[in-house]
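Quick one: structure for this chain?
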Amino acid sequence: MYIGTNTGHTTLERQTAGETDRTVPIVAKFTFGTHIIKYKISEKAAEVTKMVRENIPIYKTREENVAYMDQILPIKESFDLIRRDLFIGGRVSSFYFINGFNSDDTMLKIMDSLLKVKAEDMPENVWDFSSACIPYVEVEVLFDFDQVFKNLLSGVTCVFIDGYQACIAIDCRTYPARSVEEPDKDKSLRGSRDGFVETLVFNTAMMRRRIRHPALIMEMQEVGDSSRTDVAICYMGDRVDKELLHNIRSKIKSIQTDDLRMNQQSLAECLFRRKWYNPFPKFKFTERPDTASACLLEGKVVILVDNSPSAMILPTSIFDIIEEANDYYFPTLTNVYLKISRALINVMCVFLTPVFLLFMQNLNWLPKVFAFVAVKDTVNIPLIYQLLMLEIAIDGLRLAALNTPSMLSTPLSVIAGLVMGEFSVASGWFNSEVMLYMAFVAVANYTQPNFELGYALKFMRLELLVLTALFNWWGFAVGTVLVVCSICFNKTLSGRGYLHISLK
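Got it. Here's what it folds into:
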């Protein structure tokens, strides 16, 4: 897995239970491309910061395997890395596991069965031993250290037994995870109320529960040299777009990164290098298993990342992002009405304040029927500055709400409402009309569930406001064209248009 070649004449004396003193190299030489890097391994820990994965085969004796494992892993320094030596069938065996991952009850039953094995009953090969002596389903035989370290650091118990040139991996993990509950973001009105959690196998199980079809495939990939994060590619084999699937699979395999710091967001940035000037999202995220399952049945690809409570859906169009799962739990007429209402509100979020500013700059264009919308009270601050200040103030209130303790949320909300409402108008900073329209825009942003789309619409609105203030109707026209072009010429991961995505 890690070490290419070991060199050096300096040795390290090790004393292990049931074995004599032996020597192991203290200097390890690692090959990284065309560079050779030497790492000194101290007596306390393997001080290796970056190592190359190589398929180092399992050694012939348990003593060699244990010495190599103790050399690489900080057994003495890290309290949760545990090695336990036991006698199984008259042979010395070494158990490696991580405290906090093992199911104590399951492991107790397995060890009770193993300790009952007699010396004359020990099979000649490791395959027969794993089949006859371990009363558990999830057992795997490993023959290289790359797989050993991967399984061990993922929580799997690894066992080395004298006489077997292999490692036995017993997967009796119990994940530290929160219970399945309704997500705070994607609230359900009439549908199921379970939501994705941070544990990958739980998320795949919730989708498998909804789609009991043999065509449902969940491929496991690994991303990150250090984090080695599990990534699951889920699709229906008989409905998925093969070209899209091949594109996603090849992109994930070609990712060269040390870790996925921000889980799914880091993966999204590795998959698609977005243009900074186009803020519209390339992916759709959901925390609801029913939404992800419905997308799978439509022929789309769902990507799950371990430690992330949401699913990434590909391909994605603007219509997929705007729609909401709750729409499908109502009759057709209600469904259509909700979609049209949401689309109109999103359009108003972009154009309401720029159109208001345009008419205030050209009062002669204002029809007599709408003469009442004209600003009557004059303040010292121009309209454009009022609108921009309120845009920032609303984001400030949003950030404050995220960090406000729950016990103080109610009194602080009242204070913020008074300050941002009547007092701000009475002080002469803002017009009441500006406060009304900005309040509508702030609330209307939450009519669609996608957080990224909300900020994309906000940036388009700011662009329109600035251009309208600088160049009047010419700026408004150019800004409108830029908004339309940002949507029409936006490309998704599949390379298709943002407005329409056809699936096989």
